[in-house]
Amino acid sequence: MTFSALHKYLGHKPGPVTGELVATAVAEHLVETSDLDWKRELPPEKGASGSDFPKDVAAMANSGGGTIVFGVSEVQKAATGRRDVGELTERHERALRSAAVTAIMPPIFGLGIYRVGVGGERAVVVVVPPSVDGPHLIYKNDLFGAPVRNDSDTVWMKERQIEAMYRARLDERRHAGEALGRLYDDTAVGHDLAERAWFIGVAHPRIPDVATERPAREQAGVVFDRAATLTLGWSDRTGIHPLENVTLNNPRPGLRRWTAPNKATSDRQRFRQAWASIHHDGSVSIAAAVGGPPINGEHESLPGSRVPSRSIEAAVSDLVALIAAVVESRGGAWEYEVNVGVEYQGAEPMVIQTTDQHGFIYDENSTPLARFAPVAATIVAGEGVTDLHQQVYGLAEDCVNQGGVTYLRTIKEPPPSE
Fold it and tell me: What pLDDT score was predicted for residue 383?
């Protein structure tokens, strides 16, 4: 689902971006605003970076996000009719996305680009996400400038405005780091860390969801279930997946969150214990036992300090899948700050062990860890982002490499980038 300026000004709830929305906006002669802009024609495929497109996108991002509709004529800022923009090819779309990345600094990822309308009324709707990385600058006439929306016009920011936006960016980074740290500490509490190692993974959106309506239990259940499917798109079942050991469809309420509780309750299953949470602001968290797995048919267990690399991989995969499922359910494209750790308070060093090509435990090259240093990363999920598999792979690699393990066994190698 998406909540664009068209939805907002037409009084619609979040939903698909459709030709009907554009038609209704034109029929009601909606007027351009700080977050809605009408354009008659698409930028050219060749030379998109040198057109006004980067300036228009940067101005929207610097103003809290907005919507640009290509294929609408206007008089005195009010929509008056439709203009057919022709077919938007995949190559043309890539050129627009490339312009938002290469011609704007810092780059703007996650544009929502929608082809709507048929026949002689084809239009393209570009939804620019809000950004906390402002000011976004563009190179114009041998100078850098920061465009911003002033009601329905695009103007250039003054020096004091640029300074204030840089200050706001630094403040946001500090507050986001504090929020992520609190979430990590909260997720790590209450587990038997002295007996065995636990995976702790948390993710906090850089722009938290401030929707007034809390997601219903049924919605949360759908998100958990969707994540359990998504994770198998880039990993297999050879690792112990936390999402396979929680109750997906009947989450319990918590403090501004829904929690999928542990369902591995017997003594024989305690090595599978896990909890997963979806927070109302879009944050997600997973806690899962990863130390001391059973051997010899579950009649004997390894020490709690021994952690299979496959279990870490599976937990990382599930965490990113949960991020992707939340973003998919709420629409748009989100950036998440992620913190992943393996917590253990026992006396002996922790050892991350892998398996050889025959599936036998192999820890000759493992590095004993007095402490696992949490791994920080930024994950981008949502419409227009095609490298989520690559992001999962890189995050898991960082985690297992810390213990001397080179190769991933559960997460599949991603296809080469285009």
Answer: 53
